[in-house]
Amino acid sequence: MGETKNAVAMSKLDQVIARSEIKAVIDRYGILARDDSPWDEVRKSFATDAVYYIPGGKQLPPTRLEEVLQGGSAEYIRHHVTTCDIKFVSATEALVETNFIAITDTAWPDHWGCWKDTFKVQADGDWKIQSRRICVDNGVPQGWFMKNYGKWHQLPVHHDVHTL
């Protein structure tokens, strides 16, 4: 169930706890990534040295997460998190792919795709996002995403969850 062949052994209980903690971070991010995002709260989902890759390949540290808006915040945006696959690389690292659908004031849905994350356990024992790639499968022409990012989008990946 969602483990890589070379994963370091984790007890079933440790896996259940880790999955629950990782999923809680993903769900919280989904709730906070909205039109009036409390960026300081959003940053708490990430390791301090994390890297955030936005469509087009730009890399941002957690201190600059709001640049994902590209200067054009939607009047209304909500991210609906759907399915999530968690694969443990070790007892302290997991590769995670989570599907999302974004709804905005200009389109329902606006855009959809997945977040490709690497989660790592931090010194305090919390699981946090070490890296995140936003991979947008597509969006509607009149939507917020296409207006801010143009026609660029990442086609779905059907193999390694962290390959672009």
TrEMBL record:
Domain of life: Eukaryota
Pfam families: SnoaL_4
Record field: transmembrane: none
SnoaL-like domain location: 16-133
Stated name of the protein: SnoaL-like domain-containing protein
Organism: Vermiconidia calcicola
